[in-house]
Amino acid sequence: MPDRSPRPARWPRPVGGLLPAAWLLAVGLLVTGCAGTAGPADAPGKADASDQVDNAGPAASGGPSPLEMAPRALEPEEIPGLGAATRAAIPSKTSQAVVVTGADRDSDRSAVRVYERDPVTGWQPASDEWPAHNAVRGWTDDHRVGDLRSPIGVFGLTDAGGKLADPGTKLPYDRGPAFTATGNGAQGEPLAGSFDYVVAINYNRKPGTTPLDWTRPLGAEKGGGIWLHVDHGGATQGCVSLPRERMRELLRLLDPAKRPVVVMGDWNALGR
């Protein structure tokens, strides 16, 4: 495995400073309702102050004012489960995020969902929730070679590849036999087919190159080769793995024009 590691109501314009009597009567009916019964106080010439509607509008009788009836601006939706620090790490120009939420710090099980940011409504789901595996020992804020933990953070997604033909991604796609996976996983399961489809996670790598590029800007000791790839039925050494069809779906969803990122970590870390 590569890490070998209602518009407001329009009130009639007052005539000579007074509202027309017909309007006052209509408003009075609206305010008092149509289910009441007439009593002595309702007789002509004996209306009391409670039947009057002043120029303040419905609010004077306990109803909403025209301002309160106006549509209110929507608050843009945020990605569920992300805390302020994690949200701040997502670049402002990014409008596509693959969110990988680990079950807990030491678990190898995760859930993945893709979100896209609408300029008005905010972040909205763009996929179902998919089951996934992460590293056998869980997660870490300080990934190192051989620690068998997946790095926590927000990382770009710029490059893809695999042993099989491009399923229709907009990302640059490098196909070749070098993506052949061999050996067994942490639970003895065969790794064959794991790299049929991969997306490189820009942790300690040079963006814009094949996922096979081994440039390590942070140094070799910080690991690398962290990918999204096909699940092999068990934990990884640092990558995140998805069922084969979900990887194909993800590749078709990712769009470099939306500057996609992966937001990954255990649920507690992502909530910071």
Summarize this, please?
The chain has about 270 residues and is of the alpha/beta class.
Outline the structure in words.
The model is unreliable at 3-60 (pLDDT under 50). Helix content is 13%, strand content 21%. It is an alpha/beta fold. It has 5 helices and 13 strands. The two termini are 30 Å apart. The chain has 2 domains: 21-69, no CATH class; 84-270, L,D-transpeptidase catalytic domain-like. A hairpin with a 3-residue loop joins strand 2 and strand 3 (122-125). The strands form 3 sheets. Strands 1, 2, 3, 4, 7 and 13 form a 6-stranded mixed sheet that branches. InterPro entries: LD_TPept_cat_dom. Residues 101-264 form the L,D-TPase catalytic domain. Residues 37-70 are annotated as: Disordered.
Radius of gyration: 30 Å
CATH C-level of the largest domain:
Mainly Beta
What is the CA–CA distance across the termini?
30 Å
Q: Which architecture of the largest domain does the CATH hierarchy give at level 2? A: Beta Barrel
Main sheet attributes: strand count, strand direction, barrel closure: 6 strands, mixed
Whole-number total of structural domains: 2
Low-pLDDT sequence parts:
3-60
Q: Per CATH, what is the topology of the largest domain? A: L,D-transpeptidase catalytic domain-like
Number of strands: 13
Average pLDDT taken over every residue: 83
Structural class: alpha/beta
Keywords: Cell shape, Cell wall biogenesis/degradation, Lipoprotein, Peptidoglycan synthesis
Organism: Streptomyces hebeiensis
Pathway: Cell wall biogenesis; peptidoglycan biosynthesis
Protein name: Lipoprotein
